[in-house]
Every structure is written in C-alpha cells, then in structure tokens.
Amino acid sequence: MISQNIKVAVDAVVFGYVERQLQLLLIKQKYGSEKNKWALPGGFVLDHEDLDTAVTRELKEETGITLAYLEQLYTFGAVKRDNRQRVVSIAYLGLINPKKFKLTASTDALEVGWFAIDALPPLAFDHQEIVAKGLERLQNKISYKPIGFELLNTEFPFSNIENLYQTILNKPIDRRNFRKKLMSFGILEETDKISKPESGRPAKLFRFNTKKYKALEQKGFHFEIKFA
Amino acid sequence: MISQNIKVAVDAVVFGYVERQLQLLLIKQKYGSEKNKWALPGGFVLDHEDLDTAVTRELKEETGITLAYLEQLYTFGAVKRDNRQRVVSIAYLGLINPKKFKLTASTDALEVGWFAIDALPPLAFDHQEIVAKGLERLQNKISYKPIGFELLNTEFPFSNIENLYQTILNKPIDRRNFRKKLMSFGILEETDKISKPESGRPAKLFRFNTKKYKALEQKGFHFEIKFA
DNA sequence: TCAAAAGTGTTGGCGCTACACCCATGT
DNA sequence: ACATGGGTGTAGCGCCAACACTTTTGA
After folding, report:
1. How far apart, in whole angstroms, are the C-alpha atoms of residue A17 and residue A160?
2. Which GO terms label this protein's molecular function in UniProt (chains A, B) (predicted)?
3. Looking at the DSSP assignment, which residues form a beta bridge with residue B210?
4. Gap between the Cα atoms of A197 and A179, Å rounded
5. Nearest C-alpha of chain B: how many angstroms from A200?
6. Nearest to A79 among B1, B2, B49 (CB)
7. How far, in Å, are A83, A150, B156 from residue A126 at the CA level?
8. Contacts of A176 (CB under 8 A, 6+ apart)
9. Cα separation, A27 vs A227, whole angstroms
10. In whole angstroms, what is the distance from residue B109 CA to residue B172 CA?
11. Burial group, residue B220, by CB count within 10 angstroms (0-12, 13-18, 19+)
12. Is the predicted pLDDT of residue A125 greater than 90, yes or no?
C-alpha cells in the first residue's frame, strides 16, 4: 500500500439561536500554532470510529453538547490549510437550542462559548471559510426543509419562528404571508398555553406535529420569502 | 501529534449522456480484494496535492478524461467500507460529454468503460452507495442550476436537452412547457444550422449564451417539471 | 402517403404578493 | 392612555399546468 501522511479530522459548525441572534459554538485552542485562537470544535478521527461518531464524540468532549440535528457539510482538504501537517477535515453542520445544554469546557480546560455570527473573533486555520460554507448551507436549507425548529424550545410563540427566519435569511419577511404559509403545512400545533411576554400582548404557544414534520422532510417545503 | 492510520482517497462519479442514456464511467480493478470488480475511478491523495487536483489527476491517469464540470459530492468514511484498511474517500461529481474524449485505460492496463446507469455491473466497496448519492445530487441540481449542458455537444437540437432532462429526472415532461420555460431564461441561442436527423423533420441547432449562463448559475433556475 | 420528430398558443386556476388595522396585555 | 408585540383577510396578478394539431423531411 502507498505511503501517505495525511491526517483526518472532523469539525463542527454548530448554530444556536438566542434572543434574535444566530450564534456559533466555538472553543479556544489551547495548543499548537494557533494557540489562543478560537476555533470550531472538532479533532482527529479515531482509527475505528465512523465520521459522524467522531464529531459527536468531539463535541461532547469539548463542549458538553449533544446535537439535535447533524449533517455532513463539506470536506476541506487544501494542502496549506494547516501548516504543521496535512489535515483533511470533514466539516459537519449542527443545530441545537443552546438553552438545552450547559457548556462545559473539556478536561483540557479549553474555553467554550457562543458567539454572535456577525461578531466572530478571528478564527484558527481556515475555519472562517468553513463557517461561511455552513452559513450558506443553513440559509439554503431552511428554505426548503423544515429544519430550524431544532433551534427553538419545544413550545414557542409564533414570533420565534418568524424572527428566526428573518435572522437566518437576513431579510425582512411579511408576517402575514409567512404565517399563512407555514401554518398551511400543518406542522405546527396550537397548545393551550399562552406566553407571558415582557411586554405586549401574550401569544399562543405552538408545538410541532412530528408526523407531518417527518412527511415534509421528505417532500420538501418551499419558501421564497419576499422583502417587506 | 496523535497516531492515526487512515488513508485519504478520492473517487469520481462521472456521468455522461449518450443516445438517450445516462452513463457512468467505471474502471476495472486490477489489484486488491476487489480485483476484477468494476469501480469508480479514483485513488489515494498525494501528500502535497489538493483534493480536486487529486481527482483530476486520477481521472486523467486512469481514463484519459478531463472533466467539464466537477464538484465535491460527499465524503464516505464508514469504518468498514474497505476491509483491508481504513479509507476515507471524498467523492466528486463530474459531468462530461463522452464523445469529446477517447477512453484510454491507464498504463496499468485497467479496463475502462461507460455503463448505462440502469444496467451497472456489481461495484466494488461501497461504490454503489456513492453512485446513488451522485445520481440524487445530479437530479436535484439539474432542477435548479443550468448544469447538464456540459453533457451535450456545443451545438445541439432542442430535443437533446429535452431528452436529457427526461432521462435524468426519469419522468416524462411536457415538451411545450419545458421549451417555453427554458427559452425564457435566454440561455439558448439559435444558430443558423440545421440538424440532419436519421428520421423526422430537421431541427434548428442551439448553442449556449455563456453570459446568461453564468448569470443564471448564480441566481438559480427553477424547474419543477410535471408529469405528462 | 406514411412514419418520425419538430414546432407552436391559449386558457383556467392556483398561489403568491401586497397591504393596514385592531387586539390584549403591562406600565 | 400609551407602548409593545400579537393576530388577522382580501384582491389582483402572474405563472404554471393542461392540452393537440400542423409542419418538414426521408423512405
């Protein structure tokens, strides 16, 4: 067999959504040439573990988080992306509701944190590029698959989804049309609960209809939201 | 640095279109446990070469072909996908007009060939799965990006495109509606030439308007072809 | 004159966009 | 009473689906 000196790693672009902001999960590098820079959670794949197992494991180890949604994003393999050693990294896209987990820095005592997507610190390696790809994918995907609910509480006022879409797509949407369309899919169920907002009128809380949700995941959605 | 014993390879799912058939480019394995089975062209990445360079090189070496279109498809990394050794393979999707190249088996004297997509021989490793993923991607992509022209001659009768779409999407389309829609994008230019068919009425030949084509590549298309 | 494929328009319906005011609550 | 966000209906238009006959050529 040929000799080859390339390492295989995984990295995770994990998005969260809190207070009308799209957030990204980062850890602070403790070792290496990029010490003290923030980076995507991730690491080397073990010889006997599948790729998605590797991401899941690394995330758990480094941040304490277990994802609600995970898909393969893209593989980054440019020769010069890490200058110590050739590393090919399979990037994954993950979604999680940050409120559902407490961040716990790993035993290596790295720092872990959520950062607003439009105020990221400088990132290690080519992680900037990976994040860009992840964001692009998220924006596309949310327009044709009912993901994005993974980012919210299980019961939420309608305005949460509305704002989530506006935030992720980064454009204003027409509230009435959006609501009509989304409701027409039948994936939202009213609960009998009511939110108690800080100000303004209380809102009904909604929950997912998981059956319809699964069905839609197959068939595909379609949103092409208008400017206001 | 950690010790890790994983090899990195690339594989190419290359589609061609000839005589109303979607074809796949395969090579016959000469060595290894899967000797004499057909497989996707591909091979190990060199330490100092980028991933896409690697695919391009392997394709050239193994088949003599240089692609008109190439994009990263998906990375396959299951532990057990190759039982000799752990191999992570980054699969690429390629399109080419088979008429534009003569297949030349490599110096290792492998066999090379085009196979109709619905009559593939048994494939080595998990290549069946990779092909499935490639086909799925092609079917999606062709509905929202003006790819697919890479598969045709530079000048072609309209019916070529029409058939290509039917073949790839594997469903009948409404000829009138399809033509209207496609023409409305302005990416096809009439030439003054006329095809000389084996039978039936001669047809005008078309060519691409490369400018519009580039523009569309950005904005995205939209086809959602109906059953007849 | 027949077979084979090319070429071509219209209509109806559906879904999307555009758009603005009232309601329920807390302060 | 005011501020804050929640909740709601309609009309017009554009786009898409459905649909079939005529034309050109070669045999």
Report:
1. 10
2. hydrolase activity
3. none
4. 20
5. 40
6. B49
7. 11, 27, 43
8. none
9. 36
10. 41
11. exposed
12. yes
Q: Is A140 on the interface with B (CB under 8 A)?
A: no
How far is Cα B157 from Cα B170, in angstroms, rounded to an integer? Answer: 20
In Å, how far from its chain's centre is CA A102? 16
Cα A22 from Cα A114, distance rounded (Å): 9
pLDDT at A204: 97
A chain contacts of residue B79, beta-carbon cutoff 8 Å = 48-50
Find out whether B50 and A81 touch, Cβ atoms under 8 Å: no
Which residues, in sequence order, are bridge partners of residue B87? B7
Q: Whose structure tokens read 């799912």?
A: B13
Please indicate if any CB of chain A lies within 8 Å of the CB of B44. yes
Domains of chain A: 7-141 (3.90.79.10), 147-218 (1.10.10.10)
Beta-bridge mates of residue A27:
A39, A112
Separation of CA B164 and C1' D18 in angstroms?
22
Q: How far is CA A221 from CA A64, A146, A214, B166, in A?
A: 32, 7, 11, 23
Q: Count Cβ atoms within 10 A of the Cβ of residue B210 and give its class: 0-12 exposed, 13-18 middle, 19 or more buried.
A: exposed
Q: Give strand pairing partners of A193.
A: none
Beta-carbon contacts of A99 under 8 Å, excluding residues fewer than 6 positions away, are A18, A153
Mean per-residue pLDDT over chain B, rounded: 93
Cβ count within 10 A of residue A123: 20
Position B105 scores a pLDDT of 78
Q: If you average pLDDT over residues B17-33, what whole number do you get?
A: 92
Please answer yes or no on whether A77 and B90 come within 8 Å at the CB atom: yes
Both tokens of residue B43? 């091979």
- pLDDT tens string A36-86: 899 999 999 999 999 999 999 999 999 999 999 999 999 999 999 998 899
**Cβ count near A139 (within 10 Å):** 12
Cα dihedral sign, B79-B83-B89-B93: negative
